[in-house]
Amino acid sequence: MNASNTTELMNTLGSQAKAASALMARASAATKRHALLSLAVLLRTHVDGLQVENDKDLQRARAAGLADPLIDRLKLTPAAIETCAQGCEQLAGMADVIGEVIGLRQMPSGIRVGQMRVPIGVFGMIYESRPNVTIEAASLAIKSGNAAILRGGSEAIDSNRALAALVQQALTSASLPPDAVQLVPTTDRAAVGQLITMPQYVDVIIPRGGKGLIQRISAEAKMPVIKHLDGNCHTYVDDPCDIAMAVTVADNAKTQKYSPCNATESLLVARAVAAEFLPRIGAIYAAKGVEMRACPESLALLAAVPGASLSAASEADWSEEYLAPVISIKLVAGLDEAIDHINRYSSHHTDAILTTDHRHAQRFLREVDSASVMVNASTRFADGFEYGLGAEIGISTDKFHARGPVGVEGLTSLKYVVLGEGEVRG
Length: 426
Hints:
Layout: H1 3-25, H2 29-45, H3 47-63, H4 68-74, H5 78-93, E1 101-106, E2 112-119, E3 122-127, H6 132-144, E4 147-151, H7 157-173, E5 181-183, H8 190-195, E6 204-208, H9 211-220, E7 233-237, H10 243-255, E8 264-270, H11 271-287, E9 291-294, H12 296-302, E10 309-312, E11 326-332, H13 335-345, E12 350-354, H14 358-367, E13 372-375, E14 395-396, E15 404-405, E16 412-419
Parallel strand pairs: 3-4, 3-6, 4-5, 7-8, 7-12, 8-11, 9-10, 9-11, 12-13
Antiparallel strand pairs: 1-2, 2-16, 14-15
Helix pairs in contact: 2-5, 2-7, 3-7, 5-6, 6-7, 10-11
């Protein structure tokens, strides 16, 4: 597709999204609920067809030599489709926050002042690999009364086209504009450059993918960006802690799935519990083929673990997001050193403490500067679906507007409303 055709295409998508956003903003809660429930039904009844399209993408990806973690993200399994359907149903069952007025208060002048929650308008979504993001973004657009322009990765084009067709079918069945959710139909990379420089149509851009993509979007976009750069998540095993629980949680946080951004990439262990904890977790990681890149003290405690894949951690390992069966391990003196290490090396995504000391837990929650901070739970819970948001558009590590998993409220804005009875300012 040449440059003029791409520009024309994107302007068409933009103008259609803008028109659709006005209709979505005034859609009733019942109408949006109808669309979401219809989408859940369509997903379940088209599992076989969706897998046929997904298989085309998987075959191309394998032929192109795509890395295993990326192929894993590309898979649209029946379980993944069911999760998408459940997310639509969860959103459908949630209260509609659009039009909600909060903080209404009477002023001395007689006027009442509050804030009303309203849709942002049009959001652009640029994402890689995971085709389920198409449904998450579409369902959140519907629930929040926004319009969306979705640009998935070229590696998932067939899957995304099939999913987007179901979304538009669901919108139509609810008498909502099908242009409320549009997929960019071309894999031409120039379309991304066009999408992020159309502030006349697009109110916010949400990139979801590798660090390079997000850095590019953040640098070049002409509208606000909701982003996270990477997920270097930590689990800190405190002194004191329940060792058995810590082993279970540290195992799940790393090995339940390696490719998500909320998998633990770095394990910090208080020196006082390391001799008891490290050999136990090390045996589990060794059995599952997890490479351990460890500090010298950790290496000494792990040396006797049969079959362990061990190497000395470099300075770069403390900042690394592996997305693979690799974990960095470091011994620390205690809570203060753990917090300092996390705030220095973390990507401010998700960090957890495993402890039986309530005061330590409270300090960790207050002082660790991350979007999600957890006590005695796996970092793998940092997810919109698990947080009861129905779905997520992404996980923001920004500090303004939206932080952590971005659900319906993250796709809305607040405007001031003033209610009077003829008051004038003196």
